[in-house]
Structure formats: C-alpha cells, structure tokens
Amino acid sequence: MALETMAPNPVWDADAHEETIAVLRDHDDVTYTIWGGDWCTDCRSQLPDFGAALDAAGVEDDRVEHIAVDRDKHGPGVETYDIEYIPTIVVERDGEEVARFVESEDVPAATYLAEQLDS
Known about the structure:
Strand order of the largest sheet: 2-1-3-4
Protein name: Thioredoxin
CATH architecture: 3-Layer(aba) Sandwich
Distance between the termini: 32 Å
Number of strands: 4
Domain Thioredoxin: 3-119
Mean pLDDT: 96
CATH topology: Glutaredoxin
CATH class: Alpha Beta
CATH superfamily: Glutaredoxin
Shape: globular
Radius of gyration: 13 Å
Number of domains: 1
Pfam families: Thioredoxin (PF00085)
C-alpha cells in the first residue's frame, strides 16, 4: 500500500538540494524501503520532501517500497528490520543494508541518506 505522505512536496526546492539529488541519482543500484503511517505527524512532515527528492533524482518507482504500519507500528518487515520509530527508511544494495534514516535525525531524510551513501 502506498503511503500518501510519500507524494512529493510540490514546493520543495530541488535547486537548493543539487548535491543531495546528484548523490541519489548516482546511486542507481539501491532500493529504498520506507516504513511510515499517513496518521503519523513525523511522517507527514518528513516524507513529502523525501518523495520530492527521489522524484527530482529520477528514482524509479520499482526501487521504492512503501510499508504502512498501524499505530502500534505493526506491519510487514517490522520485526525483520527492527523498526521501532517511523518514518524509517532503509537503503539496500544487493539485499544488504547500506544506509538507514530513523525519525529523529538532525537533517532531512534525503540529505542524511545522501551523506551515508556518499561516505
């Protein structure tokens, strides 16, 4: 089920995030799995910008999976990936986790993950 909160923020300024977009674009061999809930305040504030960044980077839909969890944070893959807080975004390459954004990082999700991918 697609998360409505992943719909790209129409006022997100791609020009202000050129470096982040370039990194996301360059890493075209990774997949993104997003756990969240449309009812979640943190998801509603953070995921639209992340969706806009993925869109600006040209990340194809088949590389992005949305997983909706309920208010008790139950849902597919929650135990397997040890999801405690939402939003959580796991980036994988060839089935191996290479980066993870969890709810309360001090920078936006796209910026955080781009930094992780670029290191």
